[in-house]
Amino acid sequence: MDTKTASAKPITIGGRPFGKDRFFVIAGPCVLESEELAFSVARTMRDVCRDLGIPYIFKSSYDKANRTSIQSFRGPGLKAGLEVLGRIKADLDVPVLTDVHSVEEVGPVAAVVDVLQTPAFLARQTDLLVACARTGKPVNIKKAQFLAPWDMQQVVAKAESAGNTRILVTERGSCFGYNNLVVDMRSVALLSRGPYPVVFDATHSVQLPGGQGISSGGQRDFVEPLARAAVAAGADGVFMEVHEDPDQALCDGPNSLRLKDVPAVLEALLGIYHVTRRHAPVAR
């Protein structure tokens, strides 16, 4: 991917720089199941990342509008969800990110969160992309499962058309037959040639869409090896859905990382990042 209009300068998020010169993490439970769980995960992730010197963004969804079944848990909804996200941001002093599924929700969401995310399934929804970009807030654009990495140039251009260059681009795997995804690490390398920070979605990339009939399955064991490969291939940050007890999670449990496993995983990824970038270790 290549663009000529954007700056390669770090993006300021929550008063902190995020860019191509420092490994960062976006993580949290897939959906806001409860305020207690959200705060517990956010607090633990904040502390782990602080100890490792890794910039951190909390992620969770107030509404999962793309669940497999009409019976699936979607979340607390816009109003209640934003209240929780706002409290996490204020009480824990961490920037927050959430996904937006409609133009009508962009304004209320932008008033609370630090980063707006466009879902992979909606990567070609022009009105949504432009509306998110017009807020001036950073936008995390997830590459659709059906798009090639070079197709993202046109997707990014839609956000740039609103005058916003505070953009993150996320790779999250590609459709591979039915109910399966595959990650081509060439995609990470190609996306990283552009001016914007590239994020690897390590947990959605091991998802088995619709693989359990009324919900998606996943292969949690492959989260860490794929994340390692992606960081080595050029990813600037990783996106991970984490949960205290993934087997009991109300959304994306099979592909979520156990919270207790996060410190070891991040320490390994940070080491790979420093080796492949030939940077001096970040001061802790």
From TrEMBL:
The gene is kdsA. This is 2-dehydro-3-deoxyphosphooctonate aldolase. InterPro entries: Aldolase_TIM, DAHP1/KDSA, KDO8P_synthase. Pathway: Bacterial outer membrane biogenesis; lipopolysaccharide biosynthesis; Carbohydrate biosynthesis; 3-deoxy-D-manno-octulosonate biosynthesis; 3-deoxy-D-manno-octulosonate from D-ribulose 5-phosphate: step 2/3. Transmembrane segments: none annotated. It catalyses: D-arabinose 5-phosphate + phosphoenolpyruvate + H2O = 3-deoxy-alpha-D-manno-2-octulosonate-8-phosphate + phosphate. PANTHER family: PHOSPHO-2-DEHYDRO-3-DEOXYHEPTONATE ALDOLASE. The keyword Transferase applies. The lineage of its organism: Bacteria, Pseudomonadati, Thermodesulfobacteriota, Syntrophobacteria, Syntrophobacterales. Belongs to the KdsA family. It is an enzyme of class 2 (transferase). It comes from the Bacteria. One of its GO terms (biological process) is keto-3-deoxy-D-manno-octulosonic acid biosynthetic process.
